Amino acid sequence: MARLLSERLADRAVVLEQDVLWVEGLRDPTDDHRHFRSTWLRLAAMIHQSGRPAVLCGTVVPIELERLPERALFSEIRYLSLVTDREILAERLRGRPAWRQWSEPRIAETLEFTDWLVATAATMTPPVRLLDTTGVPTVETADEVARWIGAALNSESDSAAE
What we know:
This protein is mostly helical. Helix content is 51%, strand content 11%. The protein has helices at residues 2-9, 30-48, 62-66, 86-94, 104-120, 138-161; strands spanning 14-17, 54-57, 79-83, 128-132. It starts with a helix and ends with a helix.
């Protein structure tokens, strides 16, 4: 998704895939991967100083970022989650290359997380918008995500102009 979004948003934002920094030194699971999350917030803030917003693609829920000291570097963070039917998600995960290490227990954990996310997204602070991608081609999903980001950027521009 990050590659497709980069193409669509090239003139408006810097799109980043969080897994690029999923390296040994940042994989510490302590406190919801605090060091990893803090590093990403710092990087996004530095990118934003250049006048372009950062779009971070990856798995995260608001509580993992909102409580960090680095959160103060941003006026707002918006969250969008791509979700799909459980069977389709499991099939996609099983189809990934072996080096991605998607075992059955890990797939089950991901399905459980997705169920929890769908059930609680609207009550999170801030709320997470869900985009159901079941049966939707990847290119169309990327178009919809780019529209959502574009609307958010336009909203910020309108607010700044007032």
